[in-house]
Amino acid sequence: MTxxxxxxxxxxxxxxxxxxxxxxxxxxxxxxxxxxNRLYYVPRRREPRYRRPNPKMSAIDIEKMVERLTxxxxxxxxxxxxxxxxxxxxxxxxxxxVWKGYx
Length: 103
Description:
Elements: H1 29-40, H2 59-69, H3 73-76, H4 97-100
């Protein structure tokens, strides 16, 4: 087996292939045609398929849903209760959930 030290030669030097006979193979005209057809073919772009789990909503339905979900937003928001009330309120940020790592 002959080793070619291509890293020591100038760029672009064509070397003879080794004993494995992988460099000088020939193709029949049929094989050339099949190869060019296969490489020339550009597949069509596939359209993304997405199935919506729920039906589409109209603008009025969306407005009703947003109104329903934000009706008691201030009371239900977890951020409004992060700092304790009463005597512990004087401590401030040191008593918050964020400071204690509960977030």
